[in-house]
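Reader question, answered in our methods column.
A reader sent in the components of a multi-part assembly and asked whether the whole thing could be modeled at once rather than chain by chain. We filled in our standard form and ran it. Here is what they sent:
COMPLEX SIZE: two components
ENTRIES:
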Amino acid sequence: MSKILFASISKKFVMALAGLFLLTFLPVHLIINFMLLRSDPVPFNSAAHFMATFPLIKIFEVVLIAAILIHITYGIILQVANWLARPTGYVSGNKSDTSFFSKFMIWTGASVLTFLVLHFFNFYFVKLGFVQGDPEDFYTLAHKLFKIPAYNYIYLACFILLGFHLYHAFSSAFQTLGLNHRIWTPVVKKAALIYAIAIPAGFAYISVTLWLFR
Amino acid sequence: MNLTLKIWRQKNAEAKGSFETYQMNNVSPEMAFLEMLDALNKRLVEEDREPVAFDHDCREGICGSCGMYINGHPHGPIPAITTCHLSMRYFKDGETIWIEPWRAKPFPVIKDLIVDRSAFDKIQVAGGFISVNTGSAPEANAIRIPKKDSDSAFDAAVCIGCGACVAACKNASAMLFVSAKISQFALQPQGRAEARDRVRAMVTEMDKLGFGSCSNTGACEAECPKQIKLTNIARLNREFYKAF
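And here is the structure of the entire assembly that came back:
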C-alpha cells in the first residue's frame, strides 16, 4: 500500500489538489486587495480583520498553509526525481512541440515562493507578531510598500511569472486528476488562459495604481 | 547533398562517450536515413574503422527498434514516423545533423546509439497482459465491445514501445508508454478483471526503474511515431486512483 501511496502519480494527485485549492484563494485575495484603491482605509482593514479572526477562515488558513507546504514539498521531490531520471542531457537540445510554460514550472514556482516569503515578512508575520507593525492597519502598510519602486518591480515581475505558472498549472491539474474530456478540456484550457491573465493583471493594476497614481 | 554528421560514439556501457564528426558527401535525397548510416558504416568498415552501432530491425515502422535522437527530436524532425521512415529529403544540403542515443537513466547506453530498453519489458512483465489460458481463439462476437471503445483500445495498442516518449520528455517519463499499455486493456472487458492489480504493478515498476513523472508538457504526444494521445495518460491516472 505504501508503494501506491507514495507513487509518482499519487504525489502528482496531492500536488494537483493542493494547487487547485490555492487557485481558489487568489480571487478572494484579489477582491480584498481592490479595497486598497478606496481612499477610506476602513473597508480593507475590516476585511483583513475578518480574515484574521473569523473562526471558519482560521481553519481555511491552516488548510491554505498546509496546501502551500505540500505543493512546494512535493514539487521539489518530484522535480529532483525528474532531474535524476535524465543525468545526461541532449547536445542538440529539445525541439519538441510542447507547452512552453510547462518547461519552467519549478523556476516560476520558485519565484512565486520568493515573493511569498517577502509577502509573509511584510504582512503575515506582522499579524502573527513575529515582525513589528500594526496588524490592524494593513491598509497604511500596503500603501507605504507600494510607494517603493523596487517593491513594485519585484511585485510585478513575480506576478508575471505567477501568470506563467498558473497558465500551465490550471489545465495540468485537471489532466493529473484524470479529468480529460473531448469537449471540456479545451474549455478548461481557455479558462486557464483567462485566469492566468486576469488574476496577475488585477494584482498588477492595484500595484501600479497605488505606485504611480495615488 | 553534402552533410556533416555529429554522432555519439561510446565503446561500451562503462566507457565515456563523445561526439565524432563525419563528412558525408553526395548523399541522395531519395535515401532513407538508416541507408545513409549504412553508407557511412560501409565506408568506415572499408577504412578499417569501427562502424556506428545503431538498433534497427523491420525498417517498416512497426518494430520500434530504430530509436535515435536526431537534431533535437526523437526519430528526427518529422512527426509521426520512426527513424527508419525518415528520408534524407527532409534535410538540407550543407546541414549538420546531430545524432544522439535516447537519454534516460533507465535506458543506459550499451554502445554508440544503442540503449538498453529492457526497462519497458520489465514494466510489461509487471502487469501488461491478461491471464488467460492459451488455446483456440474464442468466437469473436462472444463478448460484444462498443466500436468506440475497441477503436480507442486499438489506438493505444499500436504503441511499439520505441521509447520516443521517454526520450522526448524533459523528465524522461514513461507515462505515455504505460498509459498506452494500461488503456488497451482497461477499455476492453477482457482487461477489466485484472485492471486494479495491473495498474498498481506497472506504475510501481515504472517508479522503481527511475523514470520521471508526468508534467503534462505534451512532448511525448508530439514525438510519438504512433500518435498515442495524452488522453491515455489521464485514463492511466483515473485507473490508478480507482485501484486504491
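What stands out: The mean pLDDT of chain A is 94. The two ends of chain A are 58 Å apart (CA to CA).
Send us your own complexes using the same form.
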